[in-house]
Design brief:
- With 143 residues, this protein is mainly α.
- The chain has two domains: 55 residues; 66 residues.
- The chain contains five helices and no strands.
- The protein starts with a helix and ends in an 11-residue tail after the last helix.
Length: 143
Amino acid sequence: MIADRIVGLGVCLIAGLYLYNVTLIPTGFLPDPVGSKTFPFIVSSVALICGILIIILPDEFTSWPPLKVYGKLAIAALMMYVFSITLRPYGFIIPAIITSIVLSYLIVPNAKHAILTGVGLSIGLFLILNYGLGLGLYAIRGF
């Protein structure tokens, strides 16, 4: 029960800081219909509401996960950082494949399924983000 409240407090703190940073985003001269602040504002507001609900309505039986889980979370966070810094120089496909393979392997340690998931997920996400949402991503860059 106390673990839930600690996590809820952490979520509220991060969401509050994120919400504050959203207010600092400058509005452009010709903003898009939704606006540059709308999506981050929605994300931060939902996270803040969820954090408050976790504090108000904690689970009765909560325990901290084993230490092995924290190691996996650290590897996952590191991979997301590596993905973010390799996205521009190498394009979307290669960093996404590597990141997806590692994250998939962390969830279910099966190399064959991790490779298939990584390749399929990265190509599928590229098609959705580039052609479906029109983000203008580079597939492979720097080679």
